[in-house]
Amino acid sequence: MKAALILFGLMLIITLTPYKGSSQITKTKLHRIIRIDSVGQVYLIYTRKNNCLFKIMSAKEKINDCNALKLNQYYDLDVKSYFEGRDIVTLELAGVEFNGTEILFERDSINNLYVANNIKGLCFVD
């Protein structure tokens, strides 16, 4: 009986101790490429970083000796908002013109548009 009580006590302690293993969410500086699309003269690269979605615009251009972006791969992207340093006249924008192409917001999931200094076309450049 005493052994059963000790065993029960140990099991209770183990189940009440917080687990700090792989289920813990960790912040990352890497973006995972989840989708690549194109419209007009622009590539749209959708990424996820720390449960946030990003819609990155990149002008279509031909790059020699390219380190091509790949779906489901992780990259250390230098991303900034397209609106950084720009005057925004209205909050009712439907989208923007980028490289001669209208790029629309996706209000249900992505409320900002981004560019990345280390993406050219569909290539990752360090």
In short:
This protein has one helix spanning 2-16, and strands at residues 31-39, 42-49, 52-59, 74-75, 79-81, 95-98, 101-104, 114-116, 119-120, 123-124. It has 126 residues and is mainly beta.
The general outline is globular
Averaged pLDDT: 80
Q: Give me the side-by-side strand order of the main sheet.
A: 3-2-1-4
Helix/strand order, N-terminal first: HEEEEEEEEEE
Number of helices: 1
Low-confidence stretches: 7-12, 14-25
Round the Cα radius of gyration to an integer and report it. Answer: 23 Å
Q: What is the count of distinct domains?
A: 1
Largest sheet: 4 strands, antiparallel
How much helical structure, as a percent, in the residues? 10-25%
Class based on secondary structure composition and strand pairing: mainly beta
Number of strands: 10
Terminus-to-terminus distance: 66 Å
Classify the beta-strand content into a percent band: 35-45%
Could you explain how this protein is built, in words?
With 126 residues, the chain is mainly beta. The protein has one domain (26-124). It has one helix at 2-16, and strands at 31-39, 42-49, 52-59, 74-75, 79-81, 95-98, 101-104, 114-116, 119-120, 123-124. The strands form four sheets. It has a four-stranded antiparallel beta sheet with strand order 3-2-1-4, with no helix packed on it. The protein is globular and about 40 Å long. The termini are far apart. The relative contact order is 0.22. Residues 7-12 and 14-25 have low confidence and may be disordered.
